[in-house]
Design brief:
This protein has 127 residues and is α+β, with helices and mostly antiparallel strands. It has one domain. Helix content is 21%, strand content 44%. The protein contains 3 helices and 5 strands, in the order αβαββββα.
Amino acid sequence: MNGSQRKPFPASKRNRRTPAIYFSIDVATDKDTDKVIQEAVKFLTDNGVIIDDTTQKDSGDVQINGMNFGSIEFDGQDADGPVEVSLGFASPAEGKMLVVTYWGTKATQDAHNKDLGEILKSLKPSH
């Protein structure tokens, strides 16, 4: 998905309690990585997520199928309460960057960890 295709969730869905998470993977190039990251953050804020920049943590790098994957994580708030926001990065090929956006309610995010791990493990570099 290209970051420019993101649309805010309708208010009726944005403000109701749900145990779901938001997860996306965008492909960027060397030329538009910053723009894709800005669009991901804008998408979150357009959907009522308030990110607390003072809580920024670097998760460190891990290897996923030969790619370095790193992320920065933040605490935040949305209509349902405390959330975690994460922006992850991996390069599947020279000149390409995967930008992974995660937003989940802290009270329910643990229920999705296994599935998210499996999705991340399925990422493969281009040859």
